[in-house]
Design goal:
about 575 residues, nine-stranded mixed β-sheet, four-stranded parallel β-sheet, globular
Length: about 575
């Protein structure tokens, strides 16, 4: 190890690259709080720089000696620094301290599953983990998860600097790092397979723009995926401000913060937009007029609500438009691009599945003219997958465009997300069923609040249309007027109600209705993990057996006459 008494041998100035020259400018010109962290930290640029300086010294002391060169910077073969925290302040400090040494940061989940956690640690070559009191597990427990890993991993507590430790940032003109060097390692969502470790270059964190200091963005989600790691770092490096809630914040807590009327922006998944709606309908809608108006007035201060990761439910968009005229902005990005490829603009009329126009100097290709598989090339996108040369090679075409695996359609200057090529279509014999179309029609039924459509492998027709749905309270839909009750909703009823909307081969043939208390597995980016969903409720991981039977699952035994469907043009009575 390198002792503290050797710290004076190392330069105390910061690297000469846009991350730190931008931070220097902001630290000299902006004096207000930039992060209000519910873990008890109010951050301004002076305390931020002091904490980064202190943590950089601690890393130099604690990391293996052979990681450091004569200048106290990380060698190219040094391991990665894991950051395991629910605190926005500590995430930003951990990233900046590591980046100041030329190192690679790996944000990690604070509630780790042993198998995935060991996989992430080994894949990203993490050998030091920064952690703090926001992590529910004890360091010894986390260490225990790593016993079966490929090498020793050191746990290191993030320490705050002492009061009044701030000194003016100085830049070392001779200390530079290549813009393409890896600064962040972010894992993909794993919604269609095992997560991959995407190497994000330093250039992705180069910002020239300045944000309006009156803007205040709400942070509430786990800090270990692209949609939650980059926003707080980006805000800090652009003079923005953040309000950070504790990990695991519920819809009720978010509504209480919105009621204050200080939040002007949110980064939020479409799934959670719906969750906030459901909380309002169950707990706020029926309050007295005075209390009700407090919530609506506070929420109406939102200037932009930025969604990504999946497609918005049309009913949720209509709900928020009528309630507060919430300015919802749809963006399309991925872990690999690291930034939005498409985005709608504030004030745009919302159109189903539209993600707006090209942004951020992105160059794109669609495989079939105005539609097809999307490939992207843009500044700052990932350079490779760590430890996976085969996946890296497959990810890029001969011109260096990243193959996203997503299908889009272009209408004028607008782009429409059609689905994930590997998971958003079902091959029913010779027919192709679009998952989003069936989900949309299911959710349009008055008695269904959630719908998840997924393929079930079948020996006869290749894939069946499987559906998992959640029913609304029977008192909340019109069917109640005719005596219809939730127990009357079954596969036959659903197929009958959809028969005029969908071709017969698109109708669900296998159904599971969610019971009270049953949930849906989500990735860190709030994408539904459909392989896990299939295993949880259909108890299937491969082909459906001939004698398949599972309690609570209905199967359409009548089958489908494919020749008749073809001759009838698709529609037929079921």
């Amino acid at each position: 190890m390198v002792g503290l008494n050797n710290q004076c041998l190392f330069p105390q100035r910061f690297p000469n690259d846009p991350i730190f020259t931008q931070l220097q400018k902001l630290s000299r010109t902006f004096s207000g709080v930039i992060i209000h962290d519910d873990y008890g930290i109010d951050t301004d640029y002076r305390t931020l720089v002091a904490d980064v300086t202190h943590l950089r010294a601690l890393l130099r002391e604690k990391v293996p000696r052979d990681w450091l060169d004569s200048r106290g910077l990380f060698k190219s073969n040094a391991g990665s620094i894991g950051i395991m925290t629910a605190s926005c302040h500590h995430l930003v400090v951990g990233f900046l301290a590591t980046a100041a040494l030329g190192g690679k940061s790996v944000p990690l989940p604070i509630n780790p599953n042993q198998e995935n956690f060991v996989y992430m640690i080994d894949k990203a070559n993490v050998r030091v983990i920064l952690t703090d009191s926001s992590v529910p597990e004890e360091p010894s427990d986390i260490q225990g998860l790593l016993d079966n890993g490929n090498g020793p991993v050191q746990m290191l507590s993030i320490e705050r600097s002492k009061p009044n430790m701030y000194s003016d940032m100085e830049i070392d003109e001779d200390t530079t790092f290549a813009a393409k060097e890896t600064a962040l390692i972010l894992f993909t969502s794993g919604s269609t397979g095992r997560p991959k470790a995407a190497a994000i270059p330093r250039s992705r964190l180069f910002f020239k723009t300045r944000m309006d200091p009156d803007e205040l963005y709400l942070m509430y989600r786990p800090l270990h995926w692209v949609g939650t790691v980059l926003p707080p770092i980006g805000l800090v490096l652009q003079g923005g401000r953040a309000r950070s809630l504790k990990s695991g914040a519920y819809a009720a807590e978010i509504w209480e913060v919105l009621k204050e009327g200080t939040i002007t922006g949110m980064f939020i998944s479409p799934v959670y937009v719906k969750t906030l709606q459901e909380h309002y309908e169950a707990n706020i809608r029926h309050l007295t007029a005075e209390k009700h108006n407090h919530y609506l007035c506070g929420a109406s201060k939102l200037r932009r609500v930025i969604t990504s990761g999946s497609v918005m439910d049309p009913s949720a968009v209509e709900f928020w438009k009528n309630l507060t005229n919430m300015p919802i902005i749809a963006r399309y990005a991925s872990t690999e691009t690291g930034v939005s490829v498409f985005a709608t603009s504030p004030g745009d009329t919302w159109v189903d599945r539209c993600v707006g126009e090209l942004v951020n100097k992105a160059s794109i290709k669609l495989s079939d003219g105005d539609e097809g598989h999307l490939s992207v090339k843009m500044p700052g996108m990932f350079t490779h997958y760590l430890g996976d040369e085969e996946a890296t090679k497959a990810a890029f075409d001969e011109e260096g465009f990243f193959r996203t695996g997503d299908i889009f359609r272009r209408v004028g200057n607008k782009y429409f997300f059609q689905g994930r090529a590997s998971s958003d279509w079902i091959r029913y014999s010779l027919y192709k069923v679009t998952v989003s179309e069936v989900e949309k029609e299911l959710k349009a039924l008055p008695y269904i609040s959630e719908a998840y459509v997924l393929p079930i492998m079948d020996y006869e027709v290749r894939e069946l249309v499987g559906a998992i749905v959640r029913l609304r309270d029977s008192s909340n839909y019109l069917g109640q007027e005719s005596g219809l009750r939730n127990p009357d909703i079954n596969l036959c009823k659903i197929r009958q109600d959809l028969s005029s909307k969908l071709e017969i081969y698109k109708l669900p043939t296998i159904l599971r209705i969610l019971r009270a208390g049953e949930g849906v597995p989500l990735s860190v980016s709030s994408k539904v993990l459909k392989p896990k969903l299939r295993e949880m409720y259909f108890k299937l991981s491969g082909y459906r057996p001939k004698d398949y039977s599972e309690p609570g699952v209905e199967f359409w035994e009548k089958g489908v006459d494919l020749e008749y469907i073809h001759n009838a043009g698709g529609f037929a009575s079921s």
